[in-house]
Amino acid sequence: MVPLNYFLILAAILFCLGVIGFVMKRNLITMFMSIELMLNSVNLTFVAFSRHINVLSGQIFVFFVMVIAAAEAAVGLAIIVAFYRNRESLNVDEVDRMKL
Amino acid sequence: MEFIDSHILTILILMPVAGAMFLALLDPGKHEAIRRTALVVALLTFVFSLHLVIHFVPHEAGFQFEENSPWVPAFGMNYHLGIDGISLWLVLLTTFLTSVSVLASWKGIEKRVKEFFIFILLLEAGMVGVFASLDLFLFYVFWEVMLVPMYFLIGIWGHGRRIYAAVKFIIYTAVGSAFMLVAILSLYFLNAHATGAPTFDFTTILDNIVNGRLVIEPRIQVWLFLAFFLSFAIKVPLFPLHTWLPDAHTEAPTAGSVLLAGVLLKMGTYGLLRFNIQLFPDATQTFTPLIVALAIIGIIYGALVAMVQPDLKRLVAYSSVSHLGFVVLGIFVFNIQGVEGAVYQMLNHGISTGALFLIVGMIYERRHTREISEFGGLATPMPVLATIFLIITLSSIGLPLLNGFVGEFLILVGTFGAAVARAKLYCTLAASGVILGAVYMLWMYQRVIFGEVTHDVNKTLPDLSAREKWVLVPMVVMALWMGIYPQFFLRKMDASVSKLLNAPRVMMVRK
Amino acid sequence: MTLPQVPILPILPELILTLFGIAVMLFDPFTAKPHKSWLSSLAFIGVLAALAGNVLLLAAEGEYYNGMIIVDSFSVFFNFLFLIIAGLSILASRQYLVREGVNHSEYYGLLLFATVGMCFMGGANELIMIFIGLEITSISTYVLAGFRRTDLKSNEAAIKYFLLGSFATAFLLYGIALMYGATHTTHLSQISSALLTGRIDLRLVLAGTALMMVGFSFKVATAPFQIWTPDVYEGAPIPVTGWMSVGPKAAGFAAFLRVFFVALPALDQKWFWVLWVSSVLTMTIGNTAAMLQSNIKRMLAYSSIAHAGYILVAFAALTPNGIASIMFYLLAYSVMNLGAFAVISAWSLSGERRVTIDEFAGLGYRQPWLAAAFTVFLLGLTGIPLTAGFTGKFFMFRAAINSKLYWLTIIALLNSAASLYYYLRPTIAMYMREPGESGRTSAPQDSAPLQISMATKVVIAVSVLAVFYLGLFPSTILDFAQSSAFLVH
Questions:
Q1: Please, what's the largest Cα pairwise distance for chain B?
Q2: CATH number for A56
Q3: What percent of chain C lies above the pLDDT cut of 90?
Q4: How many angstroms separate the CA of residue C193 from the nearest CA in chain B?
Q5: Could you write out the three-class secondary structure of C346-360?
Q6: Residues of chain C contacting B112 with CB distance shorter than 8 Å
Q7: What's the rounded Cα separation, in Å, for the pair B65 and B60?
Q8: In chain B, which stretches have pLDDT less than 70?
Q9: Measured between beta carbons, which residues in chain A are less than 8 angstroms from residue C355?
Q10: CA-CA distance, C195 to C270, in Å (whole number)?
């Protein structure tokens, strides 16, 4: 059996990739995808733990997370579309009407 | 009558508030009605405060007219009011000066009349509350809340750099009180841990200290003392924390200056007397030399700076720094003459400096300038003003038979006999302050009033109107009364001052 | 197979709100445009009904649904708070939405759904439940922030809030996952007892705690995770900004408090210093930046950061008194801030113009009562006595001093004194300057008489009364908060 740590480390790497993608990428859709990647790495963590300690609850949590991620995606994409209509751009650097 | 007897202090606080609320409902355009209402409310409050004088029992040292009911019982906060022989006169001074200020603002305030009188009345409520509170939390509440009306008075109706002065005033004071709040809370918990009964009640905490139930380590006392001291010293203002004062005084409207100098500054000295000395005797002992030195520096510095001011109002403002130095000196010599002199000087300063600001205000209303060099020879067009101005100037200098003399004399006697090292040196230095005071006041008077009329505009200045006489005559009467028959005032404060000085812990400071 | 009996009472307020929220959205297509306002009345009735339902909860204390939901006076207090916020926000939004031409009833539906999420956060006894409540709130709020969808600033607010908000949620969720892995449970009290056994991987727990803290810090906007706040608050529609600055923030604190005090008391020395430092940073950054702002929404955004910092001061006290004072303060802050935003919304012109501080010039004499109310709110936010802001701050600092946090309290009080500088700026503009004195020429419609709807007036009046009530007679609310704080601790 694959040890628990493998899953956890993989999940951690995926999460970090998500964070890096969020910080480095300038395209709104890509940033959004990075967040999805982070959420999925969390799902992986949940499932791995759930399997490891032989309790089902962790796998049920994943369903909750997936449902919520879907809702978030719907709303998030709608917001991005609204922005695109007004600005005709998906570049985050152009989200700049307000400055410190 | 029964009700009035037992709630007189609440009445004194709420009456101006109710008056302000009533004013808020009036039509802003009806200036005359608004002024009259404000005057009636102020006078009525003053009349009610006379009740205190009449029914005050002179030999009783404790607090009288007490009211005490729980406010936030969970945390031991009480609505506890009461006055002794010291605060009695300060409350009277407040109600008296407020009435005078209202009358003095009849003509000078032409815009936002309604709001002006609302703020004056709210300010009065706050000031009475500060002097009457016997609960540390309640004291803090009044202490902070009356900053607001004063801020608006300076900021809206002031002159020149009024906004700068108003903001500087409020932030300076608020920073000081931030430390006081921490000290109040720390004291509260020290008391709660020592006695098991959490309370903000000043008299209870004081009792615990006097009876030794609450012993505060000297190291902690130092911190608490400093925290209270900072906020009071800013208010006094004690050198070198006085920099807000000239700005605030100069830019404030006349009534604002009168109340600022007449009453607000006294809160600082009152706080030192009421809280610092009694609550933290050990720390008081540590800091006395320093504070006496600061007071004397203040006396001389204030006088010297006043001497070179080209602006009448600024001159009077700096003279306050000097006079209040006397008050602080009197408090920190710890004998009955010194402290009584200090309290008396607080009242004197309220009357004399208040009257000076009124006179400057009246001159300003006529000429719209306060530069001394713009005047000269005002005695010719305005003989009545010149006479009253002379009496007030002399009272401020401390001429015998006028009020200033009694206070300064008592303070000097007290300093001379004080049980501190180099008392005689201090006394001499302070006395030199008196002489400097005479110099700058008389010189100012001479430049403004005597000689030829140097500016043609000044030739046709009208003399005092009937209303202005009504404003100034009571001040002159008070100056004479307090100068000729001080016993009337001192008798009522004797017992309270002796009690304050004879508390076992304070005795130790006196050695 | 029979379905188990499911009690509905423990989530009665949430259910009522959901039903009314759905009803509002369903009735929308059948309502002609001029009559849309009745839908906001319907939403308001829903809030009142939920308030009534919340009263019933008082008699139903206990844990429900396998311990996922807890009903105690802590959750009931927060339900009250969220419902009051929702009710005032609905009233405060009516005139604004019509004026800006975005009077769509989804607005009210979303507001109610967000409130459902907030109530779940207050009553959650389990990490996943908190996550769900948080997401229900956040997703609704993302939309509300961008509700003026043809306006670029509003779009931008929505995008920024959405991206950074979901980013933070991912951290929170990862923290929950690690905590689950370490303690094998997500129930708060079981986590606590698992931690006490000492047979768990502390590294996982600490990493989980840190990640959750990041998530919560984002939601309540404390340093160093406050960066999104100013832009989002400035861009969102005025009533939404007012609502966001109190509602989701209070919900975030409710969950934050419950998680840390119920589940993680064993680690309190570990997160104490984090709170301490974060508190100092939050207050100082908030206040300093607020001084530099010219837009009033942005100024209040920074000030709301500063207020979160004050709340952390009481948090760091780690005592029941500290929790109680936070609860009291959240209520006090909510009424003051909602009132202030109602005034801003009443004074601003369509298209969100006239929202700079200088443009308040002359308000004091054109609308004396409006200006007086605004002054009361600003003084309350500063913490001047006799207002709710003072008693609230006083209780929080009292708790901090009780835990001997002298320096932290002094820093907080100095911050508070410094905040006078910017809170007084609108009063300077309103009372001490004449209109146009700042060099702006005012357009003709700017001097048109102000129409303030009844609903807005009610919001302002209720807020003023509440500010004074909490400032003068804090005992009732305080005692209630104290009794519930002891339960949590």
A1: 74
A2: 1.10.287.3510
A3: 62
A4: 32
A5: HHCECCCECCEHHHH
A6: 365, 431
A7: 12
A8: 1, 504-511
A9: none
A10: 13
In a domain, C257, yes or no: yes
Pick from B261, B454, B482: nearest CA to B391: B482
How many other CB atoms are found less than 10 A from the CB of residue B110?
10
Digit-coded pLDDT (tens) for B340-395: 999 999 999 999 999 999 999 988 888 888 888 888 888 888 888 889 999 999 99
Contact B171 C421 (CB under 8 A): yes
ipTM of this predicted structure:
0.95
pLDDT at residue A45 above 50?
yes
Helix H segments across B252-372? Answer: 254-259, 265-271, 277-279, 281-307, 312-331, 336-367
What's B61's DSSP letter? -
Containing domain of residue B335, as a range?
286-511
Residue of C397, C410, C475 lying closest to B72 (CB–CB): C475
Six token digits for residue B277:
């000395």
Asked if residue C444 belongs to a domain, the reply is no
pLDDT at B504: 59
**Smallest Cα–Cα separation from C447: which of C347, C331, C352?**
C347
Ramachandran angles phi, psi of C337, nearest 5°: -70, -40
- CA dist A78 and A89 (Å) reads 14
The verdict on residue A42 lying in a domain is yes
Asked if A65's CB is within 8 angstroms of C173's CB, the reply is yes
Domain assignment of residue A94, yes or no: no
Distance CA B209, CA B280 (A): 9
Full domain range(s) for residue C259: 9-439+451-488
What average pLDDT score do residues C210-226 get? Answer: 90
Residue B356 Ramachandran class (φ > 0 left, ψ -120 to 50 alpha, else beta): alpha
Cα nearest neighbour of A66 on chain C: C132
Tell which residue, C19, C79, C29, C220, has the closest CA to residue C138.
Answer: C220
Q: How far apart are CA C86 and CA B292, in angstroms?
A: 59
CA distance B473 to B351: 11
Which chain C residue has its CA at the smallest distance from A99's CA? C231
Q: For B146-280, where are the alpha helices, taking DSSP H only?
A: 147-157, 162-195, 202-210, 218-235, 244-251, 254-259, 265-271, 277-279
Whether chain B has a CB inside 8 Å of the CB on C407: the answer is: no
Give dist(CA C382, CA C427) in Å, integer. 12
B177 closest CA partner among B147, B222, B156 = B147
Integer Rg of chain A from CA? 17
Structural domains of chain C, count: 1
Tell whether the model's pLDDT for residue C117 goes beyond 70. Answer: yes
Task: Give C167-192 pLDDT, tens digit per residue.
Answer: 999 999 999 999 999 998 899 989 98
Beta bridge partners of B452: none
CB proximity list for B54: less than 8 A, separation 6 or greater: none
Q: Which two tokens stand for residue B453?
A: 């009329």
Asked if residue A95 belongs to a domain, the reply is no
Q: What integer is the mean pLDDT of C358-366?
A: 83
Total domains, chain A: 1
- Are residues B134 and B201 in contact, defined by beta-carbon separation less than 8 angstroms? yes
Q: What is the domain extent for residue A49? A: 4-89
Q: Tell me the residue length of chain C.
A: 489
Flag if B141 and C386 touch (Cβ within 8 Å): yes
Task: Tell me which amino acid residue B138 is.
Answer: L
How many Å apart are CA B331 and CA B275, to the nearest integer? 12
pLDDT band at residue C444 using 50, 70 and 90 as cut-offs: very low
- In a domain, residue C419? The reply is yes
Q: Is residue A99 part of a domain?
A: no
Is 50 exceeded by the pLDDT of residue C439?
no
Mean pLDDT of chain B: 88
Whole-model pTM?
0.93
C73-83: pLDDT as tens digits: 899 999 999 99
Tokens encoding B509? 């400071």
Nearest-angstrom CA–CA distance, C48 and B495? 61
Which whole number is the average pLDDT over C157-164? 92
Answer whether residue A96 shows pLDDT above 80: no
